[in-house]
Amino acid sequence: MTTVTAYAAPVGKAPLERTTIERRPLGESDVMIDIEFCGICHSDIHQVREGWGDGIFPMVPGHEITGVVTEAGSKVTRFTVGDRVGVGCMVDSCRRCENCKAGLEQYCLDQPTWTYNAIGKDGQPTYGGYSQKIVVDENYVLRIPEGLSLDVAAPLLCAGITTYSPLKFWNAGPGKRVAVVGFGGLGHMGVKIAHALGAEVTVLSQSLRKKDDGLRLGADHYYATADAKTFTDLAGSFDIIINTVSVPLDYAAFLSLLRTSGALVNVGIPEEEVQVSLASIFGNRRSLTSSNIGGIRETQEMLDFCADHQLGAEIELIEAGQINEAYERVANSDVRYRFVIDTATL
After folding, report:
1. Whether residue 282 has pLDDT greater than 90
2. The domain spanning residue 215 has which CATH number?
3. Which H or E run includes 82?
4. Residues 20, 81: one domain?
5. What is the tens place of the pLDDT at every residue in 92-148?
6. Same domain, 115 and 62
7. I want to staple 115 with a disulfide (CB 3.0 to 4.6 A). Which of 62, 63, 95, 109 is the partner?
8. Distance (Å, whole) CA 288 – CA 142
9. Would you list the DSSP string of 23-80?
């Protein structure tokens, strides 16, 4: 076992505190990673504050992890000491079900082992990236291309793949009109990626406060959803709408913005139950659907794509002692556009 410094919530809804945790011994297929950076995802806050249900405590959040391999097990073939690597939202899966075999480990029929707030196959709680080191099976580790610095690459392990996967699945590209609802940590990456794929991109944000940033990062258009005129002007406009916000929407209003056979894809999960009228999807073969992260193969594809197009996240680099303040700022939408922890400050 290796003892490392970490930041953890001791109980639900409590502030995070500096502490120590134990990392498992290095297995023959494992790599030990010195974590250099870890992004703060809104889902970290949902889980620490138990907005999505009971958590496992103490909880060390963090699933946007980048760092360097410092040790490799005897049967590791994909990585060597010194490699620049990343770890995303999952660290294992059953590997036997049809989804795992198809490279869709995020939809493992036996449930993926999430990077934190889960129980691993050894029966122990998993701890995330707000820590100095992590031990992960090499099959769930990603290679960070040289074209990406580790700090701006960290949010790609969640925010990047969470938007890339549905954009690819629903064929965003030239001739397609894509709208991104919300312009935060996920939304700004959705705009960058959709633009790089060649789609015509529109941001649908509550206000025009971030319009200049949206246009700078690749949006062709930017509208305020607080203005009712937006929904009349844009009726029937989009092939794909990626909803990145984690609060309930007027789904009928947003579905009305889709073209025939268009899809409204939810990648944020509200803490509250939502209601949808089925009448809002009839008549134009519209779809209300969802998307999780991507599998390991697709996540590596996303990282390579982002390196080729120089698409790092827009970040605010913080010290570990600022985590609780950062949580409050994320909850108040006061970040442009992803907080990233410099783990050297742990």
Report:
1. no
2. 3.40.50.720
3. none
4. yes
5. 999 999 999 999 999 999 999 999 999 999 999 999 999 999 999 999 999 999 999
6. yes
7. 63
8. 31
9. EPPPPTTEEEEEEEEEE--HHHHHHHTTTTS---SSB-----EEEEEEEE-TT--S--
Matching residue, tokens 């397609």: 176
Q: Are residues 222 and 338 in the same domain?
A: no
Domain housing 29: 2-157+312-345
Q: How many domains does the chain have?
A: 2
Nearest Cα to Cα of residue 192 among 311, 289, 87, 54 = 311
pLDDT digits (tens, 9 = 90+) for 156-194: 999 999 999 999 999 999 999 999 999 999 999 999 999
Q: Strand 30-39 and strand 338-342: pairing?
A: antiparallel
- How many Å apart are CA 304 and CA 87, to the nearest integer? 15
Give the separation between CA 178 and CA 203, rounded to whole angstroms. Answer: 9
Q: How do beta strands 238-243 and 177-181 pair?
A: parallel
Q: Using a cut of 0.90, tell me whether the model's pTM lies above it.
A: yes
Tracing tokens 């969802």 back to the chain, one arrives at 290
